Amino acid sequence: MGDHSFPKTSRLLRPADYSGVFDDVQVRIPHRHFLILASPNGLGRPRLGLIFSKRNLKHAVQRNRVKRLVRETFRHHNDLGSLDIVVLGRQNLASQDNQALHRSLDGLWQKLARKSPGSETASDPSG
């Protein structure tokens, strides 16, 4: 069984970490409820940053629930390469139940793994 913890080394911690992703977006994955932005980091492991505004998720309980689900699904995907990843929440997230969000996020992580720089399918024009 793999280690599914979420240590500080797996997080974007400083504003400069987030700016690095926003300034050099290499992979952009839009979705009805999320927007995932990613850029290579050269660290040999993926790092995750979360942005969920009060405008889209009015209550702290809702924001915390969604962030918890994003972190949980992120920990279970070891195939994301060396990326700094920022997940932004969009509107209507609060209306989604946990199972629907889990399915959506699993699909988004798989799509990110395929599109990430350095993956064998990223350079394949048919994929």
From TrEMBL:
Query: What stretch or stretches form a coiled coil here?
Result: none
Keywords of the record, alphabetical order, are: Endonuclease, Hydrolase, Nuclease, RNA-binding, tRNA processing
Q: Which reaction does it catalyse?
A: Endonucleolytic cleavage of RNA, removing 5'-extranucleotides from tRNA precursor
Q: Does the keyword Metal-binding apply?
A: no
InterPro entries from the xrefs? Ribosomal_Su5_D2-typ_SF (IPR020568), Ribsml_uS5_D2-typ_fold_subgr (IPR014721), RNase_P (IPR000100), RNase_P_CS (IPR020539)
- One Pfam family hit: Ribonuclease_P
**EC numbers, comma separated:** 3.1.26.5
Q: Which Gene3D superfamilies match?
A: 3.30.230.10
Q: What is the role of this chain?
A: RNaseP catalyzes the removal of the 5'-leader sequence from pre-tRNA to produce the mature 5'-terminus. It can also cleave other RNA substrates such as 4.5S RNA. The protein component plays an auxiliary but essential role in vivo by binding to the 5'-leader sequence and broadening the substrate specificity of the ribozyme.
Q: Which family does it belong to?
A: Belongs to the RnpA family.
Subunit field text:
Consists of a catalytic RNA component (M1 or rnpB) and a protein subunit.
Question: NCBIfam families annotated for this entry?
Answer: rnpA
Q: What is this protein called?
A: Ribonuclease P protein component
Say which species the protein is native to. Marinobacter zhanjiangensis
